[in-house]
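Just wondering, can you check both lines?
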Amino acid sequence: MKSGEQEILVREILVPIGQNAAKIPEKMITGLLSVEGHSYNQNLMIIGIAGNGWIEGVQPVEMADKSQAERFANEIIDSVSGKVECPMKWVTDQWGATSGYNTKKSQFWNVIRKVTYKLGIADEYEDDWPSCLVWSNLYKISPDEGGNPSKTLRDVQQYGCNSILKSELVRYRPRHLLFLTGLGLIEQFQPALELNEKRISMKYVEAVARINLDTDYVTKVVIAAHPRGKKQSEWVNEVTESFLAYM
């Protein structure tokens, strides 16, 4: 399903990163494409800024070699394939983990869990609640050591990330699309989204919009600030109310 995205990832993201490696401050980079839960039924797609430490990193300069870029792209795709068990199960597998990434301590995953429940998509107390989601990020390549990509790394991959985001929306056709990114970064993705957003004066929700994927299908969009450091109950209430009240 991701064959077209693999080509974009190699040609428009990884190879340009390799060609511009001298300008990129990150020592090692990692990659992540969209992750589709096995129970996804077009109800909710969530989009963050970038994945962190998803697979073993590589040196940016290696990506100038197309064969190395293709190898790394294949590793990224294999990591989200979910051929046997649901690839979103990692969220609950790591819930309360004593080593590695503890999703229970993640404000990102805590608010998503609550929003999923409040929209009636899944029971937050069931282990398979993340399986109802598609999770993606604006930027497909990020620093291996964690954190969001630098402006240089964002700029180099911007064109390709727009192309992949547009492909994702056509493929997943979500009824609800939630950006946990803030509005500022979204402006760089207008070529893919073609949003005519309505800016609203709420504490955490910055805009709402609609995307017409075709004449008969509308996606409701909420753009909220990243939940890090925010009051979770207020953030969740604003997001769910925005989906229900502004559309």
Remarks:
- The chain has a mean pLDDT of 93.
